[in-house]
Amino acid sequence: MKLVFATNNKHKLEEISAIVGDKIEILSLNDIDCHDEIPETADTFEGNALQKARYIKEKYGYDCFADDTGLCVVALNGAPGVYSARYADEPANSERNIDKLLSNLDRRLDRRASFITCIALILDGKEHIFYGEIEGRITDERRGESGFGYDSVFIPEGYDETFAQMGEEQKNRISHRARAVKKLSEFLNTL
Ligand code: IMP
Fold first, then answer.
1. Active site residues
2. For ligand 1, is residue 175 a contact (CB within 6 Å)?
3. Once rounded to an integer, what is the mean pLDDT over residues 101-113?
4. Is there an atom of ligand 1 within 6 Å of 69 CB?
5. Is the CB of 94 under 6 A from ligand 1?
6. What is the mean pLDDT of residues 38-48?
7. Residue 128: beta bridge partners?
8. Distance between Cα 69 and ligand 1 center (Å)
9. Fewest CB within a 10 Å sphere: which of 50, 56, 58, 163?
C-alpha cells in the first residue's frame, strides 16, 4: 500500500516510517511533486490535520494522511497550542518561538505542558482521526541538541532529560507523534 504523508519534514518522515514498517510505502510531498503552501487555517488540531489531508486528496487524488501538532502549556491556558509553529512574531522560527515561551513562563512555578498530535487519514473515501499525547514540563533553559521544534525545552513525565537530550531513538519510542502513529499503524494492520 502507498500512502502520502503530507509533509517534507525529514524528522517526521523517519519517525513515521520506522513505526509503520515496510508494508506501507510512505511518500512525502516532494515525492508527489507537491510544492504548495498547504493551508492550515483551522483553530483545532483535528481541523488542521483534516484540512491538509483533504487538500492532497482533492488536488492529487492520493490516499493520504496529515498531522498537526502543538505544545499546550497549562499556565498559558493551552497556548501556544494550534499556533505553536507561529507563536513568535514574524519571522517565526523554533528559536524565536522558544525564546517567547521561556519568557512567558519566566519565574512561573507551574511548568506543566503536553504535546498533542492529531493525524487525519483519508483512505478509500473515508476519514479517520488518531490522537497521541505526552505530558511533561517546560525547562528554564534549552537543554540538548537533537530533535527539532520545542524539543530542547520539553521534559516528558517520568524522565529527567529533554527530548533533545534523550536523542531521536528514545524520543520516537514515547513521543506524542509515535503514539498517534501507533494507532494509525494498528488501524492499517487491521485492513
Ligand atoms: P506541526 O504541526 O508538526 O507543523 O508543528 C507545529 C509546531 O510544533 C512547530 O513549531 C513544530 O516545530 C513544533 N513541533 C511539532 N512536533 C514537534 C516535536 O515532536 N517536538 C518539538 N516540537 C514539535
1. 68
2. yes
3. 97
4. yes
5. yes
6. 96
7. 121
8. 6
9. 58
Neighbours of 110 (CB within 10 A): 12
Cell matching residue 158: 517520568
CA of 107 to the centre of ligand 1 (A): 24
Query: How do residues 165-185 score in pLDDT, each as one tens digit?
Result: 998 889 989 999 999 999 998
Beta carbons within 8 Å of 158's beta carbon, 6+ residues apart:
none
Long-range contacts of 34-39 (CB under 8 A, 24+ apart): 34/59, 34/60, 38/6, 38/66
Quote the cell numbers at residue 30: 516532494
pLDDT at 134 over 90: yes
What pLDDT, on a 0 to 100 scale, did the predictor assign at position 71? 98
Radius of gyration of the chain (CA): 17
Residue owning grid cell 513525565? 157
Query: Which of 86, 115, 150 for mutating ligand 1's site (highest number of atoms within 8 Å of CB)?
Result: 150
CA atoms within 13 A on the CB side of 63: 14
Query: Which helix H or strand E contains 3, and what residues bound it?
Result: strand 2-5
Residue 21 pLDDT > 80: no
Ligand 1: residue of 5, 69, 135 to mutate (most ligand atoms within 8 A of CB) is 69
Nearest residue (by CA) to ligand 1, atom 11, is: 149
Are 44 and 116 a contacting pair, CB within 8 Å?
A: no
Sign, Cα dihedral of 171, 132, 98, 30: positive
- Decide if pLDDT at 51 tops 80: yes
